[in-house]
Design a protein that fits this description.
There is one protein chain. The chain is α+β, with helices and mostly antiparallel strands. The chain has a single domain, classed as Orthogonal Bundle (Cytochrome p450), CATH 1.10.630.10. 49% of the residues lie in helices and 18% in strands. The strands form four sheets. It has a three-stranded antiparallel sheet. Strands 2-3 form a two-stranded antiparallel sheet. The chain has a two-stranded antiparallel ribbon with strand order 4-7. Strand 2 and strand 3 form a beta hairpin. It is globular, with a radius of gyration of 20 Å.
Length: 296
């Protein structure tokens, strides 16, 4: 998971993948960014992180955008993940290699091998944790650029702004809404009474829009610095996939700066998360944009 930070070949391969996809999108002109770009990019990039054949991305793409939520257009497909990962662990036992599943099969933990349930738990977190989050952020980047046609020029003026822009998009989008834990007994949290069995949640978007920490928290500031967001968590609970995600977003912005004069918005449909305790926008159901090719 640290290769995106210190492996030049890995970084170059990721940039080549993104460049290829952006070039194809430029030739198409108008396209839908969620299913036709963000989902394939997330899946193809993941094959590189997990050292899997790129053909596996076709399987992951076929699951749809919201595969792990068991609702809407992809309802009932959540079981596909455990069936798939279980088959991959068995495949790796018979044909071990240097891929993610073979690695987990061979790991020693406190003098023992991981149980199947432990391995599947790691696989579930890897696949589910890095799917919607990347798709939501990539589609939100296209939506923002479509609504702000001068943004690419601003980044081109100083390419170091790409780094700050990545952090700002993660802060602003906050692709992970919340993580909750069940309270085992009644307690007072933040002045509220939580009953036994009730849930306590950490809400990342709220922290990332804290007006006591961020000036203009509801505005995207592409060169915002410092930017102490917690879009990837923090401390011991910092996201393991953060270097991978940052590399994808950085590669995307660089490629768009190099190849696209501007992004034109055609139509965007926000995706709403509706849970028992909150409703919020989380990425987009659809983002229809047109890329205007940059002339040499």
């Amino acid at each position: 998971f640290n290769r995106p930070k210190d492996d030049p070949e890995y970084i170059a391969n990721m940039q080549a993948l993104v460049d290829e996809m952006v070039a194809d999108a430029v030739e198409k002109g108008e396209f839908e960014a969620v299913r036709k770009f963000a989902l394939p990019l997330q899946s193809r990039a993941l094959t590189r992180l997990l050292k899997m054949p790129e053909s596996e991305a076709d399987v992951w793409i076929s699951w749809g955008v919201h595969v792990f939520h068991d609702r809407d257009d992809d309802a009932g497909d959540g079981h596909l993940l455990e069936a798939y990962t279980g088959a991959q662990f068995k495949r790796a036992e018979q044909q071990p290699g240097d891929d993610f599943f073979s690695y987990l099969n061979g790991v020693d933990f406190n003098g023992r091998k991981l149980t199947f349930e432990e391995k599947q738990g790691f696989a579930n977190v890897t696949f589910a944790g890095g799917r919607d989050t990347i798709i939501n952020t990539v589609s939100s980047i296209f939506a923002y650029l479509g609504d702000h046609p001068q943004a690419l020029n601003f980044l081109r003026e100083d390419e170091s702004r790409i780094i700050t822009a990545v952090e700002e998009f993660v802060r602003y989008v906050s692709p992970l809404t919340a993580i909750t834990r069940k309270c085992p007994h009644a307690a007072q949290v933040g002045g509220e009474t939580v009953p036994a069995g009730g849930r306590v949640g950490l809400c990342w978007p709220s922290a990332n829009r804290d007006e006591t920490v961020f000036d203009n928290p509801d505005k995207v500031v592409l060169d915002r610095s410092p930017n102490p967001h917690i879009g990837f968590g923090f401390g011991a609970h910092n996201c393991l996939g953060a270097p991978h995600a940052r590399l994808i977003f950085r590669s995307l912005l660089k490629s768009l700066c190099d190849r696209v004069e501007r992004v034109e918005m055609i139509k965007a449909e926000p995706k709403m998360e509706r849970e028992s305790s909150f409703t919020r926008q989380s990425g987009y159901e659809s983002v229809q944009v047109k890329l205007i090719k940059r002339m040499p």
